[in-house]
Amino acid sequence: MATQQSRDSKPGEPGERRPGRRALLGAAVLGAGTVVVGLPGVARADGKHGHGGYKDLPVPTVVAHRGTSGYRPEHTLGSYQLALDMGAHVIEQDVVPTKDGHLVCRHENDITATTDVAAHPEFASRKTTKSVDGTSFTGWFTEDFTLAELKTLRAKERIPGTRQRNTLYDGRWDVPTLEEVFQWADRQERRTGKRIWLHIETKHPTYFRKLGLGLEEPLAKLLRKYGRHKKNSPNFLQSFEPSSIQRLNKLVGPPLVVLLSSASSRPWDFVEAGDPRTVADLIKPEGLEWMASFAQGIGPTLDLIIPRKADGSLGTPTTLVKDAHRAGLILHPYTMRNENTFLPTNFRKGTDPAAYGDAFGAFKAYFETGIDGIFSDNCDTALLARADFVNK
User: Fold this and answer.
1) Which end of the chain is less enclosed by CB atoms within 10 A, N or C?
2) Mind spelling out the 3-state secondary structure of the chain?
3) Is the pLDDT at 51 greater than 60, yes or no?
């Protein structure tokens, strides 16, 4: 998950649900690619065990952003498996449709950068220019491929200039369907005896609905098929479009999250409907109360939690965490990454944009705001930073 259409660019008070020592990390994470075994269930800090719902997840929750996209090509079964092995609490999937209505896991419907489609001469004529949520893109798009055709492609690293080591895994995995992810999760649950939590996002739902490829109904059907449609089912459902969350709220029962981009932006369904509200309006108390009427959480960009100054360093935390908690909403902001190019300037090290900076320092700053969870491309780093925080 990045900002609503940016492709990737994907503060609390005492007594206001500050995580502190509320939950303990169930296992140590030793480093990238290291398997964490025997991760125990996590009890609530009050000593009572819940019924398996989202409120029983460790806090702050570590969400593996598109799997382990810092180490493997994003949205592949290899990326998801490594996230699970590292001990991530929740693993994210973005879903878009194929021409024949199957839901597949890609961050965008434009698959130019995340697959080898450009190397397939049989699909050269499919390259086109489209306007998606008001922005023009040229490339190849999932809605122009049947699932069978899409399965002939192989996934690759999206930003090879920054993550050169990830290119080792180019071509190793195909594009998974959401159904295949559910089947994988079922296998992993049988193997580990633990619930596998997912964080599923509907991408560009208004755009696809206008193409006759609505996302919510097929998603709800799959959730019901795999028993993931109930209130305490181990998955969040998220979208940058509030109307998609409202639609899902009428179809299924899992916890729902409204994603929020920059303060000046407008959800695309608002643009289409002529709703003048911006994200700045939605994060006001009245906007938060409105979202709490149909959702259980919000997923703001980290800059809504702690804005950056003109020089790119972290500024003063906003009141969003306190205000959202007062409205009964949890917060799972996005996205923490280890590389300098993505970090606030005061946490960068050296001049190489692809080198790792002080990610632990940045995690600490965000955790101290009282957020309930965080999306990270490097969930092993996030888990170690979390362990430092809850055990301080």
Assistant:
1) C
2) CCCCCCCCCCCCCCCCCCCCCCCCCCCCCCCCCCCCCCCCCCCCCCCCCCCCCHHHCCCCEEEECCCCCCCCCCCCHHHHHHHHHHCCCEEEEEEEECCCCCEEECCCCECCCCECHHHCHHHHHHCEEEEECCEEEEECEHHHCCHHHHCCCCECCCCCCCCHHHHHHCCCCCCCEHHHHHHHHHHHHHHHCCCCEEEEEECCHHHHHHCCCCCHHHHHHHHHHCCCCCCCCCEEEEECCHHHHHHHHHHCCCCEEEEECCCCCCCHHHHHHCCCCCHHHHCCHHHHHHHHCCCCEEEEEHHHHCCECCCCCECCCCCHHHHHHHCCCEECCECECCEHHHCCHHHCCCCCCCCECCHHHHHHHHHCCCCCEEEECCHHHHHHHHHHHHCC
3) no
